[in-house]
User: Fold this.
Amino acid sequence: MDVARYLQSSVTDALKSKMVFVGGPRQVGKTTFALGFLGKDADPSHPAYLNWDHPAVPARLRRAELPAGERLLLLDEIHKYSRWRNLLKGIYDTEKSRRKIIVTGSARLDYYRKGGDSLAGRYRYFRLHPFSLRELSRKPSRSDLEVLLKFGGFPEPLFAQNEVEHRIWRRDRISRVIREDLRDLERVREISLIEHLTDLLPSKVGSPLSVKSLREDLQIDHKTAERWLQILENLYVCFRVSPYGAPKVRAVKKERKLYLWDWSSVEADGARFENMVACQLLKYCHWLEDTQGHSMELRYLRDTDKREVDFVVLKDKKPVFAVECKSGDKAISPALRYFAQRTPIPHFYQTHLGERHYASGKITVVPFIRLCEELGLP
Assistant:
């Protein structure tokens, strides 16, 4: 299925003056997206596509042997080379008047350029997310939502819509992330234990994550458990959401909640819906950061009496709106009413998979499809 991705115009504009880095999870469609800039029918055999994992490419790039006559170069997974920043700087500084460059990678390129940024001022960084409801269709239907919730937002299972192939794809994707990407980028010996950790994560979605509990399950120390979680975040397996310390409420300030980039891995219906909403809101935050330069944060709100609102979106350090997820048509959560009276958050949404749509003061109860439209989510 040929669907234009939401970052198309932003990347086109950025390429006029800088390199473009495109990061995102493995198999989210980065290569297909980047190849689109070479032409409608371009594929990985195109001479301008240079993948560091191909046996012939590293030596060619180190010798600066670039394909002749190509105005755009696509460099994939080059960050797996320990000196990739200097290599890329040399290519860009030599070729910038003749070529445009897109760099893609299935790990956080912003993280793996740590240790001094020799590329400062030379690139723009964009994060490509899985498909969301309004990226699938400007006028999404209930069936679009059901398919997205079931198969997730990664292109291959989403468009195939085959349950058996989906299970195989999900197993193979995590295996390749752990056994290929992690091996190339991190010095970790306990691969089987990290695989065990990824098996545990779907059951932890939506609740404050106890690193102590994970540590005990895996029989490792706290520092190691935290490091492994950070590695999985860098590899776009999961992400964590910190609490919002609102004034005038006794908000918790430490425990973070965990979500997966592939929400289809979550078994429980309510937790899966919450995870999908988390991914949609994170996509919104990253989109505004990467395309408009705003400082965006996705948080959650919980007090010491365990009243909770699932998400709070902050823009330039100010709360913009909060979202509570309910899988069915239910009455307004008492926690929403409580926090609406006591926090500076200007608007609260309770979103659900049903049909009811009404407002009560600062609170709007709204179907998820309508919420995406009202907020202009990408």
